[in-house]
Design goal:
Rossmann fold, two-stranded parallel ribbon, 8% strand, nucleotide-binding
Length: 129
């Protein structure tokens, strides 16, 4: 049920890329196939591989893996008001998670850092290309 939504997000990212706009997208792409769909769209599902260079080359996306212990994340979730993600689903999210790995283009940022440190680390990675 996530694939059409991820394909729609890919299309948005493709449009931004075509108009030479930088974009930041926040979503929980917990599985490797979800990240492939964001990069390559529907062909990633059909071939289970990223698109090859050609008419619609794969998008260059830097994935930011926000990593931290379950207790810290649970504590933050409990403080949220009006958010759709109930803390009771957190364990299932951890169970589903396939952390990014090579050759994916990603950085891992610890949630144990302060928010300004997290933002600075992400900005630095973006600026380094």
């Amino acid at each position: 049920d996530r694939i059409p939504w991820l394909c729609a997000l890919h299309d948005i990212l493709r449009r931004e890329d075509a108009s030479r706009q930088d974009a930041i997208l926040a979503c929980s792409a917990l599985k490797k196939i979800y990240r492939r769909v964001l990069i390559s769209g529907a062909p990633a599902i059909e071939s289970n591989q990223p698109e090859q260079p050609g008419e619609n080359p794969a998008l260059k996306i830097l994935f930011v893996h926000l990593d931290g212990p379950m207790d810290i994340i649970a504590s933050r979730l409990k403080k949220r008001r009006g958010h759709f993600m109930p803390p009771e689903l957190l364990k299932s999210q951890f169970d589903t998670l396939e952390p990014p790995s090579a050759p994916e283009n990603f950085i891992t940022v610890s949630l144990e850092k302060s928010l300004p440190e997290i933002v600075l680390e992400i900005e630095s990675a973006i600026l380094q290309g």
